[in-house]
Structure formats: structure tokens, C-alpha cells
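Listing 4. Sequential folding, example run.
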Amino acid sequence: MVAARPAPVLRGHVAGYAGLRVDADRPLRGRAVAGCGVTLFLDFAASVRVVSGPDRPLRVQASHVTGLHDRPVLFEQHSRHRGMAVELTPPGAYALFGVPMRELSNTTVDLADLLGRRAERLTGRLRDAPDWATRFALLDSVLPAWFGAGPQPAPTVLRAWRLLRRTGGTVSVAALAEEAGVTRRCLEMRFAAQIGLPPKTIARLVRFERAARLLTAPAGPPPARIAAVCGYADQAHLTREFRALAGRTPTTLRAEHAAATTVH
């Protein structure tokens, strides 16, 4: 995997890029944790990704978009995998795709259904580029116009979204609505349309993401300290949330991360 930061003009819309190449002797299975990102995957090799939804498996061919998830997602990737991932913020995804974001939450859809022929043309240009640096630069040049042409989230939604991120998800929905100058019901409806999940759920995911970053950081604090810092009632509350949103305990997640990042 080769990671890169997007151009400053894309700040607020794109959290990061990654170039991916997988060569394995069998399909790869894994579990993605819940989170506040919308992932756009541009597939160079027509590989297949099988994603387990809440009710039945969803089989997605080639390039696709995975929306916000408030639960772990099981996936299977083809043994030969080539492509690029663009990690979108929910406001960025709303501007890019122009659909009610609740339609993308807890599911995965074919990218062509959202971007039409633009997706195919961009994927072809990225696939034919000579190296990752050129591909990242191409995304930087193409995406600003695509974001600018789409609908923009309401200022009230952006204020509430940024406040949630800035406070680590510890602000109440009532305080969010007051800060945004709207009723709680109005804020919840706008979040469903322009972010994808209710503000209370987004706050829960923001807290979890912060706790996971602290947990997997080098020499990170113990779970009890993380629980206190991130606004959980106690360590037991933290553990319950990790089970629900990551599918494993904090201790297990920390051990898996350490094993995955160890250089042999």
C-alpha cells in the first residue's frame, strides 16, 4: 500500500489516498471496523469484493463505494488486487455523488451507478498512469471540479459536523442543534440526507475513531485511560463499544494492529 495526502484544495472533502496492490495465493478475508469515512475504490483489475451486509451478502464487481457503517463489515478480496482508495468525508461524498447519503449508509454500491461513465474514464486514466505519484496528482487535478459541481451541505450541517470532529464526539445533540441554530429534529433530518447517519450515531463513531487511534498509537495509553479521555463512562463501556463497532475487544484490536505493523 502506498498512501498520500490530497492537495490542500481538497481538505474537508478527502481524508486520504491509497494505492493498493495485493498478490496472494488465495482470496483475502477480513473485517473493517465502523467509521466516519466513505470509501471510494477504483479497481484496476476487475477483481471482486464480497461484502457482508446486515441481512445478506452483497457481491460488488469492480469499482465501488462503501458508505458510512455503524457496525463491522466482513469482506473478501480477490487474490490479485490492484486499485486506488479515496477516503471521502461525508460532506465530500455528498458533494461528489449528489444523492441522499442515507442511501449509502451500511451498504456498498457500484461506482458506475453514482458517477456513470466518469468513473470508467477516470479508472482507465489511473490504471494507465506510469506510477503512484502521477495517479495521486491526477486525482488532485480532477476531483476539485467534481466536488464543485455537486450539491453542498447546508451550513448548519457543516457547523455541526465540524463541531463533532473538533470535540471528539463528546458534544450532545441538543448542544449541536443549538450551535447550528435549528431544532434537534431538523438537524437529524439534515444529517440523514447530507451525512448519512443521525448526529448521535456520528458522535459515537467519532469517539470510537479517536479511541482506536489512541489505542493503536505507539506506546498508547491503557484502555482505562483511553475511556476517560474519550468520554466513555468506564473501561467496560469502552469494551462494549469496541465489540459493537470493531467486532473485537480493545486488547485484541491493539494486538492485531501491533502484529500487522511489525517489520520482519
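-- end of first protein; second protein begins --
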Amino acid sequence: MAAGQGWRAALTAVTLAGIATGLWVWWRLPETLATKRPDALRPGPWLAAMRTVSRHTGFRAWTALSSFTYGGLFVLLAGSSFVYIGTLGLAPWAYGAVMATGSLSYIAGTFACRRLLLRHGLLGTVWRGAFATAAGGLGMLALALGGQTAVLPIVVAHWIYLFGHGIHQPCSQTAAVGAFPQMAGWPPPSRALCWPPRPL
């Protein structure tokens, strides 16, 4: 879209999609919080809750995992256009297609996460996600150091990293707050998924 209609059209499309999604959530997604806390957003209770959460070693560990994998994603988002277009010679529309397939790989990772949790539990699932993100990241590094100029091997490493990212994010974001069900709007998760996570 950006190549044909300009960058403003691309941002307009994203804005409209965000508005449509927000309206759908407001219309169709019910409130899951059984009992609302009227003091939840007052400074005193809010700061006390934040202190409790931030001191929890499990919260810090899972937040670090989420932050590091997101860091890798932002490196891809910020620098990949210079590599794919400037170095490898892809057309802008082809680069957009590469990024779209990367998003599909991420989504596939989130679906795989559900099945892996049932079979391997939380930590086993995260280890498998870590293998994918490490393999993808180290693969891209090895290809760069080796002077690889073919697009497909780099794209495959890109996909592997994002697949692992798709496994990490549902696990780490939910596990980070899993020890504090009284502070969340969702009911405590099923024990079948090894919740709540033990403090690390």
C-alpha cells in the first residue's frame, strides 16, 4: 500500500483497523471482572500493588524474558528494511511481503504455544521457544558474518525467531502476572497449564 498510495495511506489503514478493532471489542467482549475495586486507580492502592508486583522475583524474570524477545523484534522492525531493501535489493512491496510472512510465523507460534503448554507445561514450552529464538537470532548473525546475499536463508531465520517470539509472549506475559490473580480481571488460570507459576 505504501508503495502504491504513499505512507499516509498505510498509516490511515492501520488507524481504521485499530478503530474497527476497538469498536468490536467494546461491542462484543464482555467484562470478565466479577467484582470491581473502586480504589484500584487511586494513587495509594495503585502504588502499593505496583510495589508488590515489582518485588516478586517471578514477575521480574518473566518480564525480562518478554522484554528481551521484544527487543529482538524491534531490532528486526527497525533495521530489516535497510538489510532487505538496501543490501539484498528487495523491492519495497517484496519487503512488505516478507514482514507479513513474519507476522504469520509469529501467529503460528502463539497457536503452537497452546498445544505445547498442554503437553510440556509452562517451563517446557518456554525452553522450546528459547531454542527457536536463539536459533533464529544466531542463524541471522551467522548468515550476516558469512556474507550471505540470498534472501531465503535470511527469511527462514527471521521466521524461526518470530515463531519463538510467538511462543514466548503468551507465556511470559501471563506468567508475569499469574501469581497475582487478585489484581487481574481474569479468573485464576487452569492448573493444567501449570499455573500459577512458582517464584524463581
